[in-house]
Design brief:
This protein is an alpha+beta fold. Helix content is 23%, strand content 28%. It contains two helices and six strands; from the N terminus they run ααββββββ. The strands form two sheets. Strands 2-1-6 form a three-stranded antiparallel beta sheet, covered by helices on one side. It has a three-stranded antiparallel beta sheet with strand order 3-4-5, with helices on one face.
């Protein structure tokens, strides 16, 4: 029951809408520096909640979109993109 309650309370905060130019800059830098990214999509569910970010490294692109961790994302679906720093277990304090 506690797990179900936590999932129901889980909401993803709305991130700022980025321009095409801002999105392009972050994507280009991610390629140049081989950085992971987190993408928030424009779409919301029936309760007006955003999905979890799509996280990973760019794997390729075409004229319509890009692939991140095996997921195809169309350029017009991107609301926000930012660099993503993974937390390594070895860096956590006990």
């Amino acid at each position: 029951m506690d797990q179900i309650q936590k999932e129901l309370q889980h909401t993803v905060p709305k991130k700022g809408q980025m321009s095409f130019e801002e999105i392009s800059e972050v994507l280009n830098a991610a390629v140049v520096y081989n950085k992971s990214i987190a993408i928030q999509l424009e779409s919301v569910d029936a309760d007006n909640n955003y999905s979890d970010d799509i996280v990973g490294k760019l794997q390729g692109h075409d004229e319509l979109g890009l692939w991140v961790s095996g997921t195809k994302v169309n350029y017009d679906e991107i609301r926000n993109v930012e660099f993503y720093d993974e937390i390594k277990w070895s860096s956590l304090d006990e």
